[in-house]
Amino acid sequence: MTLDHATRPAAPGAGTAVPRPWPALLGISLGYFMVLLDTTVLSVAEPDLARSLDTSVTGLQWATTGYTVVFAALLLSAGALTDRLGAHRVFRAGIALFAVGSALCAAAPTVGALIAVRTALGAAAAACVPSSLALIGRLYPDRGRHARAVATWASISGAAVAAGPPAGGALVELAGWRAVFLVNIPLGALVLALTATRGLHCPPGGRRLDWPAQLAACGCLALATDTLIAAGGRAWAHTALSLAGAIGAAAVFLRLEARSTSPVLDRVLLRAGGVRAGLAAGAAVNFTLTGSLFVLPLLFRDRGMTPLVTGLAFLPLTLPFAVNPPLTGRIVAKVGPRRPVLGGLALLAAGTAGLAVAARTGAPYGWLALGLLLTGLGVSFALPALVTAVVSAAPQGAGGAAGGLLNAVRQTGASLGVAAMGAPLTLGTAAGASWAFLVAALVCAATGLWFGWRTDRSPGA
C-alpha cells in the first residue's frame, strides 16, 4: 500500500501552470489517503460490525472483498477512462462517489446492503488512483518537481496505512463501526475544495474502452473469490457452481480480448518474463497483507482485546510502511530491485510462519508482535522495489501500463487473500488463524523462489 503506479510527468508546456499548486497537491494526496484509510480502518471494525449486523465470517469476507474485487478489475481500464474523460473529471467524480458511498455504508441496515455499497466504493477508488497521478503530472510538468511531488503524494497517502488501525480502533471504541465510514465525508469535502481549480482541468481524449471485456474480468474475479469463500464454508455445490462460472467468465474474457482493438491487458507486456514474475510477487504481497489484516482483528478479539488495543497491536505491522520506504529506495538505487524483493518475500514468509506458530500455541502478544514486525518489514522492502522491478522489465514505452497492471494485480491478490485466509477460520479462530498464516507463508516462499528464478533469467527485471 505504498506508491504503486509508475507515472511520467506531462510533456513540457502541457496545460497551464498553477501559481500555487501545493493546495491542489495536498487535496490529491488526501484523496488517495482516504482510499487507503478506508481499507485499514475497516479491519479493526470487523468484530463490532459482525456483532452489530449479526453476520458470519463469510459476510465479513464479502464486506472486504466486495471493495477489492471491483477496485482490482476496474483499475485495468481506469487509466483509459481518465484519458478519455479528463483526469480532473474522473478524480472529482470518484471522490464525490466515495464520500456519498461512505455515508451510505455508515447507514447500512444489513450486511447485504453494506456489501452492495462497498462495491460502489471500489469503483470510486479505482477512478481516484490513476487520475490522481495524472493530475500531479498536470500540476508539475518539470521532471524534478514532479518527482518531489509524487514523493509527497506517496508519503501523505502511505501514512494512512500506519494511521488506519489505531484511528479505526479509537473510532470504534468511541462510536462503533459506522464511525469508520463517517470520517470519509469531511475528508471528501476537503479534497473537493482543495482541487476546485481551473489549473487542473484536462481536455478529454479519444481512447476507447472495451466494456464487455472489462465486465467479464470483473465477473471472473468475483466468481473466483466466491469459490474460495464457499469452499471455506464447505458449501460444495455453491463452490462447484462458482468455479464453473469463473471458468466460463475467464473464457469469455479471453475471447473478447483476442478480438478487441482496445484490449484490457497489454499482450506485449505480459510476454516479458520479468514482468510476470513481478506481478506474481505483487499479488503475493497483497494476498498476505490484506489477508492478515482480515484475520488478525478476529484473533485479537478472541484474546480479549478492545478495539483501541487491537488498533495499537497492529503498529509493529504498519509502522515499517511509514519509516522504511526511503531506506528501500536507497537500496534499490544501489543494488537494483531484485534483492529487496527477494528479501521482502523471505521476511513475509518468516513473519507469517511465526504468526502461525504463535496463533496455534497461544503464545503471548510479544511473539505475535515479532511476526507482525517481520511481516511489515517484508512489505515495506518488497512493494517499493517491485514498482522498479516491473517497470524496468517492461518493454520500451510500456512503463505506465506496467505500473497500472501491477496495481490491479495487487488488488486481485488482496481479494484472493481475504477469501483464502478467511476460509480456515471456520475451524475456530486460533486454529483457523494458524492455518491462514501458514497458507500465506507458503504463498510467499513459493513466489519468492519463482521470482528469483525468473529474474535471474531476465537480468533486466
TrEMBL record:
Alphabetical GO biological process terms: response to antibiotic
Q: Give the matching CDD domains.
A: MFS_MMR_MDR_like
Protein origin, superkingdom: Bacteria
UniProt KW keywords: Antibiotic resistance, Membrane, Transmembrane, Transmembrane helix, Transport
Q: Which residues cross the membrane?
A: 21-42, 62-81, 93-115, 147-164, 176-197, 209-229, 235-256, 277-300, 306-328, 340-359, 365-393, 433-453
Recorded hits in Pfam families, A to Z, give: MFS_1
The root-end lineage is:
Bacteria, Bacillati, Actinomycetota, Actinomycetes, Kitasatosporales
Q: Which organism is it from?
A: Streptomyces palmae
For membrane topology, the record states: Multi-pass membrane protein
**Which GO cellular component terms, listed alphabetically, does the Swiss-Prot or TrEMBL entry include?**
plasma membrane
> Where in or outside the cell?
Cell membrane
Q: What is this protein called?
A: MFS transporter
InterPro entries linked to this entry: MFS (IPR011701), MFS_dom (IPR020846), MFS_trans_sf (IPR036259)
Q: Which residues form the Major facilitator superfamily (MFS) profile domain?
A: 24-459
Q: Write one Gene Ontology MF term.
A: transmembrane transporter activity
Entries under Gene3D superfamilies matching the protein:
MFS general substrate transporter like domains
| SUPFAM superfamilies cross-referenced by the UniProt entry | MFS general substrate transporter
Q: Which residues form a coiled coil?
A: none
